Amino acid sequence: MTASAPAPILVPMATPTDSRTDSPPALPATMRAATYARYGTPDVIELRDLPLPTVGARDVLVRTRATVVGMGDWRMLTADPAVAVRLYQGVFTIRRPVLGYGLSGVVERVGSAVTRFEVGDAVFGEAPQGGGFAEFTAVPETHLAAKPERVTHEQAAATPVAGITALQGLRDVGRLASGRTGPAPRVLVIGAGGAVGSAAVAIAKILGAHVTGLDGAAKHEFVLAHGADAVLDRRTDDFTTSCERWDVILDMIGSAPVAACRRALTPNGRYVAVSGKLRRTAWLSLFGGPRMAGLIAKPNAADLELLSGWLADGRLDPVVARTYPLEETADALRQVGAGGNLGAIVIGTVSGT
Ligand SMILES: NC(=O)c1ccc[n+]([C@@H]2O[C@H](COP(=O)([O-])OP(=O)(O)OC[C@H]3O[C@@H](n4cnc5c(N)ncnc54)[C@H](OP(=O)(O)O)[C@@H]3O)[C@@H](O)[C@H]2O)c1
């Protein structure tokens, strides 16, 4: 529920006076959820029964079918970086004990002010405060879009966090626009075989760029399959010392020196840091100027609709590496923490579309 949401109001779509006979069955009072009560390794994850989430006037209650497990979950679990995570999530006591942001499922209830969705709609989106590692999740309607039939709930769940970050990094901060004339802009995606990186490769191609993906050799085939024109090996190729120059660098790692990243840009090129140490990110926001910037992605309805369209027409086709049941959320988090995955790690309650 958003901080400014009015008092919770539950509005079932069918009431006893409705002429419709297909009223949804009553919802249970409790749900299963993977929770954590202290920072640590995935060993602290505990499956518990919790009350169903409160649904505000502008919220939708989603019966969660699939939720992606991402680096954001890993960072919230392990308090990395410690200061930022503890400021947000609590110094010692965890404020939001259920993680899980990118999700897909079916609408079960809508708040009184919801206009875009009805009970029974298949939707995907991003729960801004988490809550997806559970059988039900309350999500503001602005953070949801219709799930295309073409993709599974697992693929849809893998899309919003990675897709919104990649889209806003490339288009809004990187100023990569579609429909230009002239030669294709050259984009370098650092960490191209990861969740955000593989979405960025696909989206940069949709936006008409020539795309080079930088990652380990074991991920090169995966990166090329997402549409990259070329790949660089993170262990043997140094993009900061090659003579190639980039119109946009989207950096999911943030370990290369800032000055070297600047030198690797064309005269009007832009460097976008999606990740990196706090000190580096702070330096960029204070002294980087418009061409060297950090990104904090913000989900919104228009961008989710855009991603929904690309999922529907197949231009986005996320790969799911493995789906775990809710009971094995700790194992799923371990797999994300270990890295090296070729595709998304997902928690699924039910498989299929
Ligand atoms: N700013 C925002 O709004 C925002 C939003 C979402 C995510 N993020 C952050 O963005 C970062 C990336 O997220 P993600 O979900 O894409 O992570 P991910 O799935 O783990 O992807 C990272 C990729 O980079 C590769 N890699 C590791 N070190 C590298 C290096 N030195 N050079 C090139 N590639 C390297 C990894 O390979 P291996 O798997 O083999 O290690 C992996 O393929 C995370 O720090 C996350 O917290 C920020």
UniProtKB/TrEMBL annotation:
<feature type="domain" description="Enoyl reductase (ER)">
    <location>
        <begin position="40"/>
        <end position="347"/>
    </location>
</feature>
<keyword id="KW-0808">Transferase</keyword>
<dbReference type="InterPro" id="IPR020843">
    <property type="entry name" value="ER"/>
</dbReference>
<dbReference type="InterPro" id="IPR013154">
    <property type="entry name" value="ADH-like_N"/>
</dbReference>
<dbReference type="InterPro" id="IPR011032">
    <property type="entry name" value="GroES-like_sf"/>
</dbReference>
<dbReference type="InterPro" id="IPR052733">
    <property type="entry name" value="Chloroplast_QOR"/>
</dbReference>
<dbReference type="GO" id="GO:0016491">
    <property type="term" value="F:oxidoreductase activity"/>
</dbReference>
<feature type="region of interest" description="Disordered">
    <location>
        <begin position="1"/>
        <end position="27"/>
    </location>
</feature>
<protein>
    <submittedName>
        <fullName>Phthiocerol synthesis polyketide synthase type I PpsC</fullName>
        <ecNumber>2.3.1.41</ecNumber>
    </submittedName>
</protein>
<keyword id="KW-0012">Acyltransferase</keyword>
<dbReference type="InterPro" id="IPR036291">
    <property type="entry name" value="NAD(P)-bd_dom_sf"/>
</dbReference>
<dbReference type="Pfam" id="PF08240">
    <property type="entry name" value="ADH_N"/>
</dbReference>
<dbReference type="GO" id="GO:0004315">
    <property type="term" value="F:3-oxoacyl-[acyl-carrier-protein] synthase activity"/>
</dbReference>
<dbReference type="Pfam" id="PF13602">
    <property type="entry name" value="ADH_zinc_N_2"/>
</dbReference>
